């Protein structure tokens, strides 16, 4: 409900100025906002009281009747002035205006006599300090120099350059400095032009290079560069960082001076002047640094806000400038002091006010200032307060329950309790900033809260607010209490056997165990009740060797961490030195450890032995069975070869394989009925050497799948031999058959 005009703000602020001695001075200040508004002035932070010499006008401006740089009493009208405006809602302060007296010193550099040959370059210079910066003009023979002559160049800093000298340039030169304070003349200098233009070659040379300059944005920079040589060198400019100089606002004065108008921060850099001999790469260089400063200006202004009591107000103020500005905050014209509930962050760009109350209602100002200037912006904080809100909760108490738990209790407010819908408990570590606070909501009928998951040995602050649908009450009184201490956590213990009489106990670094003072180490033989120890070890020790042990028994090792609050839980490990020399034993305690010496037989070894024995028996049975069946079937195939008609290979099919298998089953049946093949007759018809017989047996076994146990599967193996024999040239029957080539599977013949 506040418009723009209702905010107390400056329409016109005082600005920097240079005052003339004994002349009047006016500093302007105009403010808008809700009346009544009171305006006052300060100089160097001290209130100005109206007097005959200085008083405030009706429009709020300050009038100084006769400006004095130095009065008889030692005072001065020079200084920093600011304007303060105040109304019912707060107070604002204007930017600081720097007021200086106009002055002019004596010349500290005068022009010097010069003798230069015809065609050369002459340079005169004079320097003088003053406020404002004096304007320097040149006279020749007491007549102003003709600036229309292209060979005459006047630079702003009091330099006169004359190029391509001629005889008529000879004369007497001096400069005249002028500002609002005074007019002064320099000493005179004579220029003599001698001889005629020389044709002797001279290397290029820079007589005067650019100076280092520090200027403010929108000013004009002139970088001087005068070069001589024969032939006349060409002057060029570049930036040391390689960036282009550009063309906008750039102008060359005379034969090589660089002028940059309307400076910006981007013009800052190192500029290089180069004198180049025409048509060659011969060059001479000189460089100067240009620094362009920018007064502070706001990128983001703080905005006026309205917030209910107990909430957080945040103001943001972002400024830029060169050099980067410093930000300061004021509250109703006074330097803002930070506290637990007032914080400045992000290089003072963010102002946060936590848990606001009516006392925080004010006008807050952001002052941005650097060496090039200052600026200010203001914003108002309005604290909303509804009538009839509950009072603050009463009798807040906090009691420690454990190392991680605190119980907080309170009583309801003294007034306006009917509309309460609940309470909010605000919790924070006492050492943490306010922004680290967190809350827990509590129902309106509950007047205590158990706060858990806290840290041991830590102080916490608590306060309560009662909430209604229209807002929150004021905060209760703050109570601070600490949690109890806690014993350290249980360490992780590892045991390593070093040799038959020594072990090493190691554990994790103590940083993981919380607050502690050290460790206690115990050990004993498991059949004894008495421990050896404790061995007290400091908190930075993580290993300990236990020696002179008995290798024939089992040991129990126990480790715990302790602190000022007592001993923590212990970690227990059991270790035997008989079986191994280097291994870690992490067995939990059990009742069976007393029988350990009687159970040395390895169960794993017994199981492996049984498996190996059974496997050997199975392989022996298979070898005998398949070796016998393979020889018998080979003989049967020879009989079939004598009695079965030969079938062309291309007429064979899967059906033929099945039929042959069926025929063999029939013959097998007949054999079982007593019609046995005469083995002696077969050996007479088909004599075979012992080595060939062995090869046949080996081939039969090799082609037989290890899992084949039926006649049908085995009967396919001789078919391969049968077909292979068919491909050989027909030998006489008495001869031994050719050994078949190895085959990789019975299905290939189909």
TrEMBL record:
Membrane-topology descriptor: Single-pass membrane protein
Keywords carried by this UniProt record: Disulfide bond, Glycoprotein, Immunoglobulin domain, Membrane, Repeat, Signal, Transmembrane, Transmembrane helix
Main location: membrane
Residues annotated as transmembrane: 606-626
GO cellular component terms, A-Z: membrane
Residue stretches of biased makeup (Pro residues): 730-740
SUPFAM superfamilies: Fibronectin type III, Immunoglobulin
Pfam families: fn3, I-set, Ig_3
Fibronectin type-III domain location: 392-486, 487-583
GO BP annotations listed: cell-cell adhesion
Family matches, as SMART domains: FN3, IG, IGc2
Gene3D superfamilies membership: Immunoglobulins
Ranges annotated as biased composition (Polar residues): 643-654, 707-716
Ranges where the Ig-like domain occurs: 8-100, 105-192, 204-287, 295-382
Compartments (UniProt record): Membrane
Basic and acidic residues bias (residue ranges): 663-673
UniProt keyword DNA repair present: no
Positions of the UniProt region annotated as Disordered: 643-750
Family: Belongs to the immunoglobulin superfamily. DCC family.
Protein name from the UniProt record: Immunoglobulin superfamily DCC subclass member 3
Classification lineage: Eukaryota, Metazoa, Chordata, Craniata, Vertebrata
